[in-house]
Every structure is written in structure tokens, then in C-alpha cells.
Amino acid sequence: MECTLTKNKIICTCTYEPCSRKGRCCECLHYHRRNGELPACYFSSETEKTYDRSIERFIRDYEGKF
């Protein structure tokens, strides 16, 4: 599958509307990594809406599920 901005925007789970990185996965990953966070696609839809992208929140969400 070819990776394109159009296709990425369709599957992007980020609900932060003013986000300039929506659909730009590489930019998104680098941005959140620089900030010690994970991108929206790592979180459940319910948690993603809190905009808490911390690694600690990711661990809490998925603790015990695996």
C-alpha cells in the first residue's frame, strides 16, 4: 500500500482539529517523541479525546490487557 497524505488523513485518529501534522505520520511521531509522548493512534478513542498523550497514560490504559 502506498503511503499518501490523503490515505493517512482517512485513517488518522487524532481529534485535535488544529493539528498541522494530521495525516503526516512521520512528522507526528517525531513531534510527540520530542515531547516524551505517543501519537493519538496509540490510544483508545476514549483516551485520545483527553489529549493526554503521555507514555504513562498509555501504560495505564493498556496495563493488564496483554
TrEMBL record:
The lineage of its organism: Bacteria, Bacillati, Bacillota, Clostridia, Thermosediminibacterales. This is Cytosolic protein. Pfam families: DUF6485 (PF20095). It comes from Thermosediminibacter oceani (strain ATCC BAA-1034 / DSM 16646 / JW/IW-1228P).
